[in-house]
Amino acid sequence: MTEIAAKAGVSIPTVSRVLHQRPDVAPETRKRVEQLLEEHGLLQRHAKKLSRKEHSGIVDMLFPGFDSMYSFEIARGVEEVLARTDRRLAISSTHHSLELEQHWMSKIQHSPSDGAILVLAHGEPRRFDPLHRHNIPFVVVDHAGELGLDTPSVGATNWLGGRTATEYLISLGHRRIAVITGPTTLPCSQDRVAGYRVALEAAGLPVRPDYICQGNFSPDSGYTQTNALLDLPEPPTAIFAGCDEQANGVYRALRDRGLRIPDDMSVIGFDDVPTASIVTPDLTTIRQPLREMGRVATTMLLHLINGEPLDSIRVELTTNLIVRNSCKPLDDEK
């Protein structure tokens, strides 16, 4: 396969995808590689191997951690689809460790896995090479890094969500709107902040650097950054939290300062996890269709396992505003 890749001018994973009849290869490249495979007799040998292969019935799923409702909502969507099949789900966590992720990649190469669904804290094409080399189909969910053009993935419209959240606060009369981001290295965080900036600029409002606070999608970062915002000479009147978990920290900081939501501060989140509707007051948020993302990723993976083509390599599901009681029109005196 190394020799064929060199002759065809492609990577070894590309040769592997052609050998396994994956749909994510350009037609001209496929034709060139297939001709070389046939000359070396690999197509015939692989066909015999496939005829003897049996599926294990196991689908693997990898998360960066189980420290939020975000992971559970995606997993629920995966389970809903698998429940209609004869396959079962095996869930693992990297605990936000690149070393543990690499260890998982090395283990799955020798496991009886039919395929994998990956929810990674970071991502780049080369990290998927072990899966390509061992012909393990996979789909990436809510990708947080650069992906190869042939990597199947499911995501959401983070940029649109950031803009929608900010536009809603502007429509309520807010002009001093702060955002607490997720990790700035993650594309989803970057996209949400970009949407926030565009909404402010479209409304003719300044983008104030002191109102853009870096968090890490945790309640603690929401708490810490809210306190920092409240200590500014001119605090904001509304806070856009990067996720609902982070908004919980915003709530706690405001309560500790004796401030009321939404009378003294409007708060909007992102994700719409189940807890968003049971906090007090219930949280206005941007719904990211996490469960649907899990369902779509699983459906895509089952197609790949069965050797069926995908309608699209990249799927992006829309976000939408869920209005509850944590935001209100700004009083004139503010």
Briefly characterize the structure.
This protein has 334 residues and is an alpha/beta fold. The protein has helices at residues 2-8, 12-19, 27-39, 42-52, 69-82, 98-108, 129-133, 158-171, 187-202, 219-230, 244-256, 290-305, and strands spanning 58-63, 88-93, 115-118, 138-141, 153-156, 177-180, 212-213, 238-241, 266-271, 284-287, 314-317, 320-322.
Features:
42% helix; 6-stranded mixed beta sheet; 12 strands; 334 residues; elongated; alpha/beta
Secondary-structure blueprint:
Layout: H1 2-8, H2 12-19, H3 27-39, H4 42-52, E1 58-63, H5 69-82, E2 88-93, H6 98-108, E3 115-118, H7 129-133, E4 138-141, E5 153-156, H8 158-171, E6 177-180, H9 187-202, E7 212-213, H10 219-230, E8 238-241, H11 244-256, E9 266-271, E10 284-287, H12 290-305, E11 314-317, E12 320-322
Parallel strand pairs: 1-2, 1-3, 3-4, 4-5, 5-11, 6-7, 6-8, 8-9, 9-10
Antiparallel strand pairs: 10-12
Report on the architecture of this protein.
This protein is of the alpha/beta class and 334 residues long. The chain contains twelve helices and twelve strands. The strands form two sheets. It has a six-stranded parallel beta sheet, with helices on both faces. Helix 9 links the parallel strand 6 (177-180) and strand 7 (212-213). Helix 10 packs across helix 11.
